Amino acid sequence: MSINIAVLGAQWGDEGKGKIVDMLTPHFAAVARYQGGHNAGHTVYVQGKKFVLHLIPSGILHPGVTCIIGNGVVVDPQALFKEIDELAAMGVAVDGRLVISEKAHVILPYHRELDVLSEARRGERKIGTTSRGIGPAYEDKIGRRGIRVCDLLGDPAALAEEVRENVSARNRIIRDSTLEWQPLLEQILAYGERMRPWVGDVSLLLARMMREGRRVMFEGAQATLLDIDHGTYPFVTSSNASAGGVCTGLGVPPRAIGGVLGVAKAYTTRVGEGPLPTELSGELADRLREGGQEYGASTGRPRRCGWFDAVVVRYSARINGLDALALTKLDVLDGLPDVRLCTGYRTSQGTITEFPADLRTLAAATPVYETLPGWSAPSKGATRLEQLPAEARRYIARLEEVSGVECAIISTGSDRAETIVTPGSVVAGWLGGPHVAAGRT
Ligand code: GDP
Predict the structure, then answer these.
(1) 234-254 pLDDT, tens digit each
(2) Is residue 368 helix, strand or coil?
(3) Among the four residues 107, 157, 252, 273, which has the most C-beta atoms within 10 Å?
(4) If DSSP codes are grouped into helix, strand and coil, which group holds residue 192?
(5) Do residues 236 and 166 both lie within one domain?
(6) Cα of 118 from ligand 1 centre, angstroms
(7) Atom 8 (ligand 1): residue with closest C-alpha?
(8) Beta-carbon count within 10 A of 372 CB
(9) Do 263 and 377 have their domain in common?
(10) Nearest alpha carbon to residue 343 among 394, 289, 260, 277
(11) What three-state secondary structure class fits 374?
(12) Same domain, 355 and 421
């Protein structure tokens, strides 16, 4: 059976999607990104070599796999070229395997300036963005003045007109600055020329692949709680990171998505601002941060850490229709005397078990915890369920019950080999199909 699946973050991002996508990739002909920009950061270790990918799907590390950047993504050409050059230096060629949607919007150099400016203006209320121009590029898209990849390859006179208008609008916003539009036009025309070999009709390509029975993995960046509609607004990203984004961000029909895998850590982290009900401080937070190396792959910022929040994951399961979870970083909890699961929030209106829309409710919520015994024997490196300490298995079983989703994959270390695929799980069924890509770089 030819099943296409979506793999996306079930919490606030950094769940370890990179590793999960990487281990599943050999079962797919293509990996397609549907939203976000180069603010994502996937860290993948292949035979001891560290690859940090921001924009290009990590499937690029597997020869023969087509990597697609959808129309829902915003593309910074400079960041793209940097990533391509770095991959080339590590011996990975992208030619013939990378396809960028002609409908994707382009991040221009002044979008970065606008990003920094808008954060500075918000002061205390800052979002904690990566300041890479992603938000402003999406604002231009929704404001119907964005510049798309196809514009860089089309009529230069029409592009000149758009660039001139955009630059004068920007000069009105950034006072005391007079950006010249002509050099910018030349610069982006040159970007277009370099991008030309990789640009294509992504929706058409995917439709053809799927008709031929070639399997596609839809790769989410950021995560459900950072989704512009369903996340903790306004502390969110500017796109639909949840499953709905697959259709709009790639031009594929809902029925193309045969399964949805949510990636969640065995605890919770969040980078940037906004409420985090299970947030810990002090020694325990430091312990999780150091144990899990919880520092942003894109910015190096320390992540805020807390216990696993089943209210969040249950919400994610509903929004995305999760078939299963890939539970990552179980090993980070090794050696703790006890572990906790948040099953509800105490609020001024009583205890709630559904995720609230109003951030004030969330910020004032006190988690309701279940405490379970920890485990002293290591889960680290386990490749079979039987190798896990009994208490770790109990923790997972209870986590499944309170989240309402089965853990089909359990990750016990950063290496690809340190993974358990639960026998008889939905993922084990998905992987029963043909292996399309052979070998690795
Ligand atoms: P992503 O954006 O969701 O891919 O997450 P990041 O790449 O920012 O962070 C994931 C980090 O956790 C990477 O450094 C991974 O190598 C690491 N990682 C993934 N799974 C595990 C795991 O099960 N255990 C440990 N200790 N580290 C893991």
Answers:
(1) 999 999 999 999 999 999 999
(2) strand
(3) 107
(4) helix
(5) no
(6) 30
(7) 14
(8) 17
(9) yes
(10) 277
(11) coil
(12) yes
> Ligand 1 mean position to 186 CA, how many Å?
40
Is 257 contained in some domain? yes
Nearest atom within ligand 1 for CA of residue 13: 3
How many structural domains comprise the chain? 2
Domain span at residue 147 reads 105-198
440 pLDDT higher than 60 = no
Nearest to 101 by CA among 55, 162, 164, 39: 55
Considering the domain boundaries, does residue 435 fall inside one?
no
Q: Which residues line ligand 1 (CB under 6 A)?
A: 14-19, 41-43, 45, 292-293, 297, 328-329, 331-332, 411-414
Of 38, 42, 54, 62, the catalytic one is 42
CB-based burial of residue 69 (10 Å sphere; 0-12 exposed, 13-18 middle, 19+ buried)?
A: buried
DSSP secondary structure string for all residues of 25-38: GGG-SEEEE-SB-T
Half-sphere exposure of 201 (CA within 13 A, CB side): 6
Q: Please, what is the average pLDDT of the chain?
A: 91
Rounded to the nearest angstrom, the gap between the alpha carbon of residue 54 and the centroid of all alpha carbons in its chain is: 10
Q: How many C-beta neighbours within 10 Å does residue 144 have? A: 6
* 42 among known catalytic residues: yes
Place of tokens 């605890």: 267
Report the separation in Å between the CA atom of 400 and the middle of ligand 1, taken as the mean of its atom positions.
21
CB atoms within 10 A of CB 292: 22
pLDDT tops 70 at residue 433: no
d(CA 433, CA 316): 27
Read off the CATH number of the domain in which 267 is found: 3.40.440.10
Catalytic annotation present for 22: no
Q: Which two tokens stand for residue 425?
A: 């799980």
CATH at residue 133: 1.10.300.10
Distance of CA 191 to the CA centre of its chain: 26
Ligand 1: nearest atom to the Cα of 297:
8
Residues 94 and 145: their CA atoms lie apart, in Å, by: 31
Measure the N-to-C terminal CA separation of the chain; round to a whole number of Å. 28
Atom of ligand 1 nearest to the CA of 43: 7
* Tokens, residue 88: 């080339």
Given 198, 231, 247, which residue is the final one in a domain? Answer: 198
Give pTM, 2 decimals: 0.93
Residue with the bigger pLDDT between 16 and 122: it is 16
Q: Are 249 and 279 in contact (CB under 8 A)?
A: no
Going from the C-alpha of 416 to that of each of 69, 175, 382, 436, the distances in angstroms are: 24, 50, 11, 18
